[in-house]
Design goal:
Layout: H1 16-34, E1 37-38, E2 43-44, E3 53-56, E4 59-62, E5 89-90, E6 108-112, E7 117-118, E8 128-135, E9 137-140, E10 150-162, E11 167-177
Parallel strand pairs: 5-6, 6-8, 7-9
Antiparallel strand pairs: 1-2, 3-4, 8-10, 9-10, 10-11
């Protein structure tokens, strides 16, 4: 953006045209910026960002890193150019949990289902978990929509997704569901 400098020795009356031209240039630039930045909605759109690191809130996206952690909620469509990896595992493939936590935080749980694993209801819409039977047995089906009993064979799996109140079966392997 080019503006004309007014010197201290210039007269105000003879600089009026220069001042008006400067304000017009500034107004044009602000209008151009408003095409990308909406100050009322606090949104930025139509901009391509090329950087090695981007910080959004408490989330850091680093181009050299294979892991991106987003600590905020994305409430719009998101296109990801790589795999989505759901992290967090409860239990191990050699030692399954005999009970699940009251608040589901991980995406995968190895379970010892001989003690009839109880699954708490979920309050998180869209939350998804996978249960893997490290030891065969039953999953308590009270909070699983449409099921009265669920039995997992050794290494059987049950993947569930929540609507905010109940769990819905998305897929299963080595499972008997009634």
């Amino acid at each position: 953006m080019a503006v004309t400098e007014i010197l201290g020795t210039d007269s105000l009356s003879s600089s009026r045209i220069t001042l008006n031209d400067n304000f017009t240039s500034l107004e044009d630039e602000i209008t151009n910026l408003k095409g990308y930045l909406d100050p009322s909605a606090l949104t930025l759109s139509g901009v391509t960002v090329s950087t090695s690191q981007l910080t959004v809130g408490t989330s850091i996206i680093n181009a050299s890193s294979a892991t991106v952690t987003v600590a905020t909620t994305i409430s719009a469509n998101a296109t990801l150019g790589a795999s989505v990896i759901k992290s967090g595992i409860g239990g191990t493939s050699t030692s399954g949990l005999t009970s699940l936590p009251a608040s589901i935080a991980d995406s995968t749980y190895f379970v010892d289902a001989t003690s009839q694993i109880a699954l708490a209801s979920s309050s998180v819409v869209g939350q998804e978990i996978t249960l893997i039977a490290q030891v065969a047995g039953d999953i308590e089906a009270t909070n699983i929509a449409g099921a009265t009993t669920v039995t997992l064979a050794l290494n059987g799996t049950l993947t569930l997704r929540s609507d905010g109140t109940s769990w819905y079966i998305i897929s299963s392997y080595g499972a008997t569901i009634a």
